[in-house]
């Protein structure tokens, strides 16, 4: 499997489980209806973990344009591969959202709230003020990239067989730790915006929302769409640059 196909598959898995849990909690007559924010954040954490386990060994499981661009900005990823990675991530997000749509097909017309249907696809601010929402997404993604880079250093200080220990962390425990990181960001920082922290996670499903035949779906809220694209990219780059600056 090529790295580009792996990014597509990994992002599709991410969205299938991530937006799948949102649909389970939000859509009417679902058995998980009203499960709450803890269920959603736990579902997203496991979604990221499973995606990284699935394709991490092939592509590095960026599954997020902010990760791809941030790593390239510090010389940890080849700029020539950036367009292909980002295109694959957006395509995978759209595919994953299509699977969510089919999984919950019987529930879209049972749900009266267009905002709830949109929430099963993409993010929106709890308080509709784009400036504070931008800051929230910037901080959340900066934390994400800083912590991902820090997790990659786990074990480097071991006195014996440090390389083997680091490899084991990356292969077996790394995806689990990243999943816990996503859970932590969602629990602590996700309330104001729904924590996109991933342009593909928001844009791909938002495009799918505009295209899919969802009954009574309402607007795709393109006026807000730039925030979960621009803020995560800038925040991720800032987090990665800070990690390098501190020489951790």
Plain-language structure description:
- This protein has a single domain (3-246), classed as Glycerol uptake facilitator protein (Up-down Bundle).
- Mean pLDDT is 92; it is low at 154-162.
- The longest helix has 28 residues, at 162-189.
- The chain contains 9 helices and no strands.
- The chain has helices spanning 3-26, 37-59, 65-73, 82-103, 114-119, 130-151, 162-189, 199-211, 227-246.
- By secondary structure, it is mostly helical.
- α1 (3-26) packs antiparallel against α2 (37-59), α2 (37-59) packs antiparallel against α7 and α3 (65-73) packs parallel to α9 (227-246).
- It starts with a helix and ends with a helix.
In short:
67% of the residues lie in helices and 0% in strands. The protein has 248 residues and is mostly helical.
Looking at CATH, the homologous superfamily is Glycerol uptake facilitator protein
Strand count, sense and closure of the main sheet? none
Helical fraction equals 55-70%
Mean pLDDT: 92
Which fold name fills CATH's third level, the topology?
Glycerol uptake facilitator protein
Named CATH architecture: Up-down Bundle
Low-confidence stretches: 154-162
Q: How many beta-strand segments?
A: 0
Level-1 CATH class name: Mainly Alpha
Secondary structure category: mainly alpha
Q: How big a fraction of the residues is strand? A: under 5%
First and last CA, distance: 34 Å
Radius of gyration: 18 Å
